[in-house]
Design goal:
By secondary structure, the protein is an alpha+beta fold. The chain has helices at 12-22, 48-63, 110-128; strands spanning 26-32, 38-43, 72-76, 80-86, 99-105. A 5-stranded antiparallel sheet has the order 2-1-5-4-3, sandwiched between helices. α1 runs antiparallel to α3 (110-128).
Amino acid sequence: MPDTVPTSGTTLDGLLAGFLTRTPHTSRVVLVSPDGLKIAHAGETDKSEQLAASISGMSSLSRGSVRGGVRQFIVEGDIESLFVTSAGSAAEPATVGTLLGVVADSEADPGVIGWEMRSLTKSLAEHLSTKARTGTHPGQGR
């Protein structure tokens, strides 16, 4: 398997939908901004905003529980589990605090989900970074 998924010409929602297709037993995936807003999602969408808020809140609580940064956490339920990992990069300060959350059923293999999440976060980097602006400011040079 390749270490990252193809990203050329792909939208964030498309990358997330591809993740669900490749990763068995997953039903929802959401990308969450540092302030808890949903950036993109795929899968069951009726509660994607609530899922984003829950992920943000649990991440905040986690940071208050351990020293140093929190890279990932799992909430294991009887029927489903929530896997959350950091999707931002220190190389792109604007993305620090961005989170990727995945909901999977009890049959899911945590190792497969973790590996796929890692691959996805690498592919998300180009979509989360702010590109340098080119051209002139409107009204400039008149």
